[in-house]
Amino acid sequence: MAFELPKLSYAYDALEPHIDARTMEIHHTKHHNGYTTKLNGAVAGTDLEGKSIEDILENLDMSNAAVRNNGGGFYNHRLFWEVMSANGGGTPDGAVGAAIDEAFGSYDSFKEKFSAAAGTRFGSGWAWLCVHKGGALEICSTPNQDNPLMPGSGCEGFPILGLDVWEHAYYLNYQNRRPDYVSAFFNVIDWGKVNELYAANK
Ligand code: MN
Questions:
Q1: What are phi and psi of 167, to 5 degrees?
Q2: pLDDT per position as a tens digit, 18-35
Q3: How many CB atoms lie within 10 A of CB 175?
Q4: Cα(28) to centroid of ligand 1, in Å?
Q5: I need a surface site. Which of 92, 145, 161, 195 has the fewest CB within 10 A?
Q6: 148 and 130 in contact (C-beta within 8 Å)?
Q7: Measured in angstroms, how far is the CA atom of residue 84 from the centroid of ligand 1?
Q8: Burial of 5 from C-beta contacts in 10 A (0-12 / 13-18 / 19+)
Q9: CA-to-CA distance for 62 and 49, rounded, in angstroms?
Q10: Which residues surround ligand 1, an ion (CB under 5 A)?
């Protein structure tokens, strides 16, 4: 069963003005679609064919650049679309809200640390909120399309929130102003979905 580009659960313009429709459409139909197609090409006819993406990433041979880049790209973008919503934003509630207060002191302090992880990632990459077994939270970041599930990623937990800081994610609307894009992201985070992922992976 080949990997398929997931459909978004909202329209391309649903996240405006924080993320513009043109960026969303190109990001989904060109970038994410490209990673998906190339991932299928990279696993076809190998012993990775038919395995789940989580299984592939967790047991990845990091010298396999095609699967590392495109498997990461496939997984990372799928999570990215899922953790955003037109009705997003606000202060996180539920178990994630409590875990954020415990790990970072407050939501504002979490925003500061997450923004720093996103802002100081040189070049292209991702900022992550990950949950450890037991429920503790961690903020980390990875270069390129690397992912917290990959061996030696520098992140320990399971990703429940991810922010794409590649220029293709924001350049049309924000040009070089990555901090403005990062700050806008907090207005579209679907904390209900993040809570679901937290409960399922803690
Ligand atoms: Mn991207």
A1: -60, -30
A2: 999 999 999 999 999 999
A3: 11
A4: 8
A5: 195
A6: yes
A7: 14
A8: middle
A9: 17
A10: 31, 164, 166, 169
> Is residue 113 within 8 Å of residue 139, measured between CB atoms?
yes
Q: Which of 144, 122, 127 is nearest to 71 (CA)?
A: 144
Ligand 1 centroid to Cα of residue 105, in Å, is: 30
Query: What's the CA gap between 74 and 66, in Å, rounded?
Result: 12
Task: Cite the DSSP H helix spans in 11-86.
Answer: 21-26, 33-43, 53-58, 65-82
pLDDT band of residue 13 (cuts 50, 70, 90) is: very high
Q: Which amino acid is at 197?
A: L
Centre of ligand 1 to C-alpha 166, Å, is 6
Backbone angles phi, psi at 2, to 5 degrees: -75, 155
Q: Distance between CA atoms of 164 and 176, rounded to whole angstroms?
A: 14
